[in-house]
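Write out the 3D structure for:
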Amino acid sequence: AVSRLEAADWHLSVVGSVTRDPDYAARVQSDILASGLSQRVTLCGELTGTQLEAAFADADLLVHTARFESFGMVLTEAISRGIPVLSTPAGALEVLPQGAISEIPAGQPEVWSRKLDSLLGEPQTLREMSAVAAAAVLPSWQDAAAEFESVLVEVL
């Protein structure tokens, strides 16, 4: 999808393990090189601590392309930092605020390209999504645990 972008000003930092599935990581790296995107796409590997915080601080948009995500902690982390999200409908997105997240089906690179071009070409839309994300009040871990407990009590 990013090889089709028409927007002039963008850089994609891919954060995640390059050793958990080395064959897949090698294919991604090969695709980056073959598409001529090595100056625009960086495979960062796994990040923690200050490196992860710096990556979040530099981000204008979190792009999440997973086909399934049971909860989506990274999505919640992005929203809690005021970073809007572009994601597949890959799981528990209902806890995220409407207006801070935009959903696109997996496996449709042309749709992803159009949406990314739209967001990159319309900074006001991205700013509005960021404002919604920054204003979001997400449930705390205590709230989530209490909700989980109430469901268990109800079911049992």
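The longest strand covers residues 41-45.
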